[in-house]
Amino acid sequence: MVFDWQSFQQLKKDNKIRTLNKGSQWLAYLCQSDIVIFVGERGTGKTTVLLYKHLPYLDNPNYNAVIYRKEYGDMEKAGGIVDASKKILGQFGDYLSTSRKWVFSAGGRIDFINYSDPIADFRENVQGKENVISEIDECTHCDELHWGAIMANLRNTNSLKTQMIGTCNPDSSSWIKDLVIRYLDIDTLSHTARHNPHLRGKELYFFQYGNTIKESVWGLTKQEVYENAKNYIDEQWRKMIERKQDLSTYGDILDLILSITVFDSSKVENEALMRNGGIKYQARLLMQSNEMKNRYAISDWENTYDLESLVSKQDLENIYHNSEQRTGTRFASMDVGGLGTDKSIIYIWDGFHIENIYFTKSKSATELLQWIKRILQKENIPLENFVYDAGGLGFALSGSFDNAFQFISQAKQTEILDYDGKPIKIYANFKSQTVGCFLKYLKSSDINGTCAISINPQLLDIDIYGKTLRQCLDEERLAICWTDKKDGILQTINKEETVSLIGHSADIMLALVYRFAFCVNELNNFVEPDEDWLEEMNYYFNTTI
After folding, report:
1. Confidence check: pLDDT of 485 > 70
2. Does residue 319 sit in helix, strand or coil?
3. Which of 324, 326, 464, 530 is the most buried (most CB within 10 A)?
4. pTM exceeds 0.70
5. Residue 410 scores a pLDDT above 90
6. Phi and psi for 206 in degrees, rounded to 5?
7. Cα–Cα dist 172/170, whole Å
8. CATH code (residue 148)
9. In whole angstroms, how far apart are CA 326 and each of 330, 358, 436?
């Protein structure tokens, strides 16, 4: 059916026809860069960009593409990208729900795939596939290793333009910030990192010579990148021409340099949304924490959390590079996960040295019980030296480990005496008290002047469901902080606040912290009245990143 211009505009105004918004959405659709990142506030049509990108290819029988999301549940929920795809792609083919893919009349296909598997399993699962376009919905949830594995499958033998496309809200804890940082204006005084309007939609170029995107050479032109990364690029070109001297038919040395364009979108570009309460919608987004405002309402990549971590990156480095803090007594500490995405984590300790780590998820109570018993037996851990969180999901283990330390977060703090031997209230609960004890060992208060925790360095790079242990601890350290809701009493943030802060529960960090429940009584009471206790407490409990 063909409409005249006036009819088209009326259908558009009445929301009876779907079109791309003028501005960043339309430009991102047209963009031909090797990598396209579409960043935006909520309500800017990021999912629409992903789906429209496929439309020019649907009559090509050789077209293969993939849309990635971390979990299948995220893409298949009501109103998710699968639902949205049916409205846009439904007239061109069929969606096969059992195999999660679109098959089009001309023969092309689009698969929906999750990337929550450990990186080794994920690489094996996607190896050998050829994709014209790979897209990641909410790409800030994807770590750099999985991103690289997805990019490695971008190839075709049918003269089609390959592209990697990601959509996201800003997230300062994601490595994607390192990928887009050249598009940002970073103001250290006002603690903002917002998109530079002069670079919005501008194509830049880079060559990655190292392991991560941080080890890359960037430029405004390919020639500029080549001049500054000549040694690296020439070496890779030399290896190619050793196999075939003349590559001029296929391209030249500058094709080893990738292009990227980042688009920063605003909901004011979405006319349909703005006509139907867009300003009120923005008002609702502004009724969030500062961190949520940054992600969803104002597109700012900087952290402005109201809460500050008590564990700095340097604190973690002190653990990583410390001498082994063994005592000869073995312990195990555990955070218990259930059938969902929460992980069950067990650390194996010799004194205060982490020797090993075990992890699993999605186990039933019976399966989890057997898993724990096998590990404790294998590692020769006596039950009286095993601590696990017995509240919440850990309640399912009740009666199975009677001699173990059953950690109850909301239990009362154990008795603390002041200089005169009188009981005093410092912590809101036993979890907060254990965190306080952990911080003392970490920051060397009243122990030995140096960090009193160490770890087997080989554990730091093991893969835990797509991230290394080092990456997990660096991310989850942010959740070790005091809430401001208890004036004068130290209390850790709860699980809901943790999820708001880092996007998930802090299973891996908490399993480590629980080890220090065994040490609480050793550090409770003050035995040196000449110490300025208040000054010391202020120093150790207000250390920030």
Report:
1. no
2. helix
3. 464
4. no
5. no
6. -155, 160
7. 7
8. 3.40.50.300
9. 9, 19, 21
